[in-house]
Every structure is written in structure tokens, then in C-alpha cells.
Amino acid sequence: MEFTEVVSRFDPVMGMEVHVELHTNTKMFCGCPTAFGAEPNTQVCPVCIGLPGALPVANRQAVEWAIKIGLALNCSIAPYSRFARKNYFYPDQPKNYQISQYDEPIAHDGYLDVQLEDGSTWRVDIERAHMEEDTGKSTHVGSATGRIHGATHSLLDFNRAGVPLIEIVSKPIVGAGERAPEIARAYVSALRDLLKSLDVSDVRMDQGSMRCDANVSLMPKGATEFGTRTETKNVNSLRSVEIAVRHEMCRQADVLESGGEVVLETRHFHESDGTTTAGRPKESAEDYRYFPEPDLAPVEPTEELIESIRATLPELPWVRRARVQADWGVSDEEMRDLVNAGALDLILATVDAGAPPAEARSWWVSYLTQQANKRGVELDALAITPAQLARVIELVAEGKLTNKLGRQVVDAVLDGEGEPDQIVADKGLEVVRDDSALQKAVDDALAAQPDIADKIRSGKVQAAGAIVGAVMKATRGQADPARVKELVIAACS
């Protein structure tokens, strides 16, 4: 069914569950490191792989960051909360239960105001934000889709098992109508920006440190009872969140209009074509047989601790945007473009590293955006840091690189060839400032194009551009174009 017809016949209801890995140095309940990308099963111990007799100890930093997230989401912080065992079997859950929180989460009843593309604001109410541990990772080998169906065998990596995780659960989002997919994306985007500003997670959706489960159901127009929902699991990009919600709305409408019933189930999202397919029947809370975790004491933060954490909250992203917009004098549309492109935080970080705002904006929204598109990654996934780009901009400003050479250095950084200064030295890219070497290149170019030289001598100074271009080519772009032009004019005068 076409989307416009869907929203004319049904009211969508959404519930967003976002899982965020905290970038603490160690895991939630043991001292194992949490670094991403280590060799499989090298960051494990008896606690995180669930060996008998191993006892967990809560990570204080993770608890404090959970409180910090709750405060930033305008939540109430519980003076008493406790961990629970969520019982289920899956191969990448080594204990056969997950330590989580159930009826007594650390943060509850908050909200997040989300700015939409037209500048309007939508408030998403937060049910809870609770602490838990992540699972391991399964790799299914031999399957065409990478999923367990059709696989010949599976490999398990428990490095991620036990990494601190915060699950942020929204209350039902109703009344969104045709804007439901946009609101879903804007909410996850705002949440990512907020968590990044808190410096509690790298929120890399491409690496799984932030994952979204999108619950969607439909109600016929005029109905008051929610429809049966589906939960699309582990959607890993902002664009995919929007696409997945839109697809589920259309798919469910087809089912209902044909006289069928929507099944309460999890669903898999397919990046290749933007569709979802059935996963497994959805469990209820009773199925997990929650009970209090007997090996961990309750969490009882004092009011003094909560207020001390509140005092560390940074300027919120949307407040900072308003300030930066006023400082830079850019329009609402330009600011939205920077935010939607994922460029604003990168630009600000580049400015903080010493680059002028205009140059930082130019690099990120033009050349680096092109490189991100070319490489098929998000802008913030490019292998260059704001500090590295700021150094390239500094080298250009100092006259040691031209813009063209600067782009060569940036390309080399993106390809993992080292730091900017090292690349300049290794490749011999610094601008040639030796006038004797430049003069020889100028003389050679003039001798090779005597007709151009005559035009310059006759007063047609604009013709010098051809000679400058020849010199730049001869010097592999390492000459200073302004100095070359001066030498060309002087040679023809």
C-alpha cells in the first residue's frame, strides 16, 4: 500500500528502544577491557563468560554514566534500584541469562525534545533508561544473508559479552501520522548527539555501539486500542531507522487490509532493499522469568552524588547549535543542513583544534563529504580526526601546502598512511619556495610556449595563467601559484 494511503487509513504508534554501549575502560561486572576490534575471545574472564563460582562487581563509572544519561534525558533518578536476571538461552549469552534491570531501573519518566527538519519540535517521552550488559557476537558462516538460516556453522566471540549497556526505552509515540518515520530518525539522531556530547559512548552505529529496535503498530482511524506491534531489531543507521519504520507501516497496512493479523514478533531489517523479514515470536516479560540478581547489591546513589553528576552536564547540543548559529551568522536552513549531514560536531571539534570556522566548514561539507560518499560511509566514520584536519588547514594557512596538496595529504590520512606532517615529509609534498628552482620551471614553461610569452609581454597579463598552470604541473602542484605568477610577470617585463 502506498504510504499516503496508509496514513489516511491508519494511525501509527511507535516505541523506540535504543541500546548504547558505554566506552568505559572495563566491562560492566568484571575487569576485562572493552576495546573494539580485538582478536576474538581475548578479552574474556570467568565472570563475563559465566563460569561457575565467578562473582560480578558493578562498574562504578558505568553506574555514574547511567545517572548522567538519565539526568540529560530529564529523568527522575531512583534512590534505590537493583539488578535482575533476564533468563533466556542464546549461544552468544554465555550465562544463559543477562544481568539487566527490570521493575526498578536507575532512571525513569523523562523526555527528549526533538527538532524536525522544518524547525518544529516533537517531545518524545522516555519510559526508562536502565543498565545491563551486552551479549557476545555470533558470526554465521555459509549463509547468503549472514543470518543463522542456511548457515553451515556459527562462530562465537565473547569479547563484547559484559560490555556496559544502557537501554533507553521511549513511551508510545502517538499522533505522529505521516511524520512517524521522520520523527523516529530525528529522535535517534538527537539521542546520538546528546550521548556524544556527554562523552559516555562513541555511538558508532556502524560498529554496533548504538543500536535501535523500532516497535511499530497501526490503529485504524478512530480506534483507541493499540494494534499488534512488531519489533525491528538492531537497525544500525539513522537513514535505516526512517526506512524501517516506513516499510513496517506499509507492510502492516497490507496485512490488515487483506484481512490478516499482524504477528507479535521480532523482524530483521535488510539494508540492501529496505525491507524487513520475520525473526522470532516476541517474548513477554513473563517469558524471561525476571528475578532479583542475588550476587549484586542494590544501587543507592546519594542526592549529593546525583547533584555532583548533574553539575558535570555539558552544554546540550541544541543549545550549542543556537549559540553557534548566532556566532556564525548562518540561516536555519544552513544549520539544519550541517546537522543532517552529521558535520556540525566535526566542524566544531576542528575549530576547537585550532582551525578557523570558515575553513573547517568548507573542508567538511565539501571535500570530506564527497570522500564519505565515495567510500560509502557516514561522515563521522571517515578515518580522519578533527585534529588531523586542523593540522592540514594550518599547513595550508602557513603556505607549506596548497589546497590541492592539502587534499592529497587528507587522502593519505584517510588511507591510513599516517599523520599529516609525516605524510608531507615522506611524500615530499611541501610547497617549493626556492626561487631558483621556480625560476627554472618558469623559464622552461615560457620557452615551451613562446606565443603565450609574447602575449604577456604585450600586456595581456591574464595569459600568465597558462604558464602558471604549466609550472604547477611540472612541480607536481608543489609551487606557490601566487609566487609563480610574480616570477612569470617579472620574466616577461
UniProtKB/TrEMBL annotation:
SUPFAM superfamilies: GatB/YqeY motif (SSF89095), Glutamine synthetase/guanido kinase (SSF55931). It catalyses: L-glutamyl-tRNA(Gln) + L-glutamine + ATP + H2O = L-glutaminyl-tRNA(Gln) + L-glutamate + ADP + phosphate + H(+); L-aspartyl-tRNA(Asn) + L-glutamine + ATP + H2O = L-asparaginyl-tRNA(Asn) + L-glutamate + ADP + phosphate + 2 H(+). SMART domains: GatB_Yqey. It comes from the Bacteria. It is an enzyme of class 6 (ligase). InterPro entries: Asn/Gln-tRNA_amidoTrfase_suB/E (IPR017959), Asn/Gln-tRNA_Trfase_suB/E_cat (IPR006075), Asn/Gln_amidotransferase (IPR018027), Asn/Gln_tRNA_amidoTrase-B-like (IPR003789), GatB (IPR004413), GatB_Yqey_C_2 (IPR023168), Gln-tRNA_amidoTrfase_suB_CS (IPR017958), Gln_synth/guanido_kin_cat_dom (IPR014746). PROSITE patterns: GATB. The keyword Transferase applies. HAMAP family: GatB (MF_00121). Allows the formation of correctly charged Asn-tRNA(Asn) or Gln-tRNA(Gln) through the transamidation of misacylated Asp-tRNA(Asn) or Glu-tRNA(Gln) in organisms which lack either or both of asparaginyl-tRNA or glutaminyl-tRNA synthetases. The reaction takes place in the presence of glutamine and ATP through an activated phospho-Asp-tRNA(Asn) or phospho-Glu-tRNA(Gln). NCBIfam families: gatB (TIGR00133), PRK05477.1-2 (NF004012), PRK05477.1-3 (NF004013), PRK05477.1-4 (NF004014). Heterotrimer of A, B and C subunits. Belongs to the GatB/GatE family. GatB subfamily. This is Aspartyl/glutamyl-tRNA(Asn/Gln) amidotransferase subunit B. The lineage of its organism: Bacteria, Bacillati, Actinomycetota, Actinomycetes, Mycobacteriales.
